[in-house]
Each structure stands twice: as structure tokens, then as C-alpha cells.
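Sequence, C-alpha cells passed on for absentees:
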Amino acid sequence: MAVVGLAALFTASLPPASAQALLSEGASVAVRIKPIDQFRIGHEEIRFGRLTYLGGFEILASDRQIGGLSGLISLDGGNGFLAVTDNGHWVSGRVEQTEAGVPQGLSDVRFAPLRGADGKTLKARWGHDTEALALSGSGLYVTAETKNAVYRYPWPIATGKERMLEELELPDAIRSLPRNTGLEALAAAPGDGPLAGRVIAVAETAPSGLHDLAGFIIGPDRTETFGIARHDRFDATDAAFLPGGDLLLMERRFNLRDLIGLRLRRFKAGNIKPGAVVEGELLLEADFGYQIDNMEALAVHKNAQGETILTLLSDNNRSLLQRTVFLRFRLED
């Protein structure tokens, strides 16, 4: 596997994400869903700050490999998706939805192992704790938390047998992050924003509540750092850019003291600069009184009406005690 510099990776141009079939040679999996009509349990409201709850469901899959979903991208106006699991698998499928983006079911769900440059699976060779996905003009990027690495794959992942193209050359500031709480969130900036041509990565947690979350601006020439103010024992789990260039960060709290929690923050693109510490705007906070679980994946797309839709997905750790929940919100700008 080649470890390559950054410049060559940010110059290519890929076709936009489309409805083309993914993982055509992957294993097909039967899934059932349990609708989640109310986001706040026992309450009928659908507006939560600047977010409107569209709907969601719990995913019940016939194969446990569909569990552990940790990274997500929405495709074809929300009609399709590609996800990655924390044990080194791709998962794809079609989302049955209304024109407004209300999710109603899943179909054609498939999975296949991620492969290294030599064709062997990541699980068979080395660290495969894959946690996040980002699709940019130069390829599909995947983080591996245990190695604190970022891998580049071709796009699309049409058969599921595509091999890794390269591993990015990253600075010691990233490589030295703790193995189990390292690179967790990844987002590729849109081409028309102030961070165009860059990928943003965020470490899962910080040494203590007095420390900021470490953020990294990975560009064609170098990697620069910034900070995200950390509060209330929340850790970063995923990130995604809005079409206008602002960054969304999803955070999770999952411990015996606080039980379970979800937080979404929005950061102005112009505020994300080397050396800055950003606070952001709180969009959503939820606890065990809401239909959440171990929320780890976040994706953004535009629906047929041009509205901005957020999709949130949980990682059930392939445990019978946890759920895989798929939630959709509309951002009211």
C-alpha cells in the first residue's frame, strides 16, 4: 500500500454522486424496519429549533454485519446511501422516500469488505476500525481510527471489490492521537466554499473536559490544525458540510454518568481557520427521552424541492442491547 503526499489527491475531478448501482457483487441482506413516528418520545411536535423532524425507523437486518454503522453519505437526492461499518465493511442500499425526503423504508441492501491495495480485506491485514466517509472530487475517503489513517478509494464502489488507491501522508499530530479515540469525523468541503479542496477531520475526544477537540484541515499542500470547544463530556462522531460551506458536527455522549445524548452544532465556514477555536451554533440536543441510540453517522443532501436534509444513523455495535436508528430532519434556513 502506498503512502502518498497530499497534492496529487486534490486535483482530480470525479463525476457527481448518482443513482448508479453500488456493491453489485456484494452480499444481499434482508432488512425490516420499525417506524419511528415521534422523535421526542410521547410528544407530537416535529420542530426542534431550526430542524424539522421528517421521520425515521429502526433497521432490523438479517445479518449482523449490517450493524456497527459509523459513516454515511447520501446519494441521488437521498434515494441511495453508502455507509461504512466499524469492522471494515461497505453497506449500500436504496431509501424509499417521499419527494420531501420523508424516509419510508430500505431496499437492495448489500455489504462487502473494504479491500487494501493488494486486494486483501482490511480486516485480514491491519487496522480496520473504519469510522467515517467523505466523498470529494478526488475520491472517496475513509478514516481508520485505530491507525489514525485516511484511505482513498475510487468512486463509485460499483462492485464492492474495488481496491484502496492510497493512504494519505498525515502529520504526527494526527498519527499520535490515541488509538481508540482518534480520527472519528471526516467531511469534504464543497468546491464553491472557502474551504474548497480540503477535507476536515476531527478527533473523537480530548484528554479532559478542559481541552478542545482537535480538528485538522487537510489540504493539497499541508495539514493545519484548529480546535472545537468541547462541552459537557460530548465526543465527536461525524461531520458533514452544508451546501453553502458551513460545517455540521455530530456529537455523542454515552456513559453511566450522563447516559445517552446527541448534539448537533453548526460552524460558519469562514470561522474554520488554522489556530482558531470555534464554538458553533447549537442546532439540536437530545437525551434518553428522544429516539436516539449511539449516534455515529451524519449525511447531508438536497431534496427535490432544494431543501437541505440531514440523515442521522446510529451504531449498534452489533449488540442486541442497542439499535440501528435512521432519522431524517429538514434544516430550516
Q: What stands out?
A: Confidence is low (pLDDT under 50) at residues 1-5.
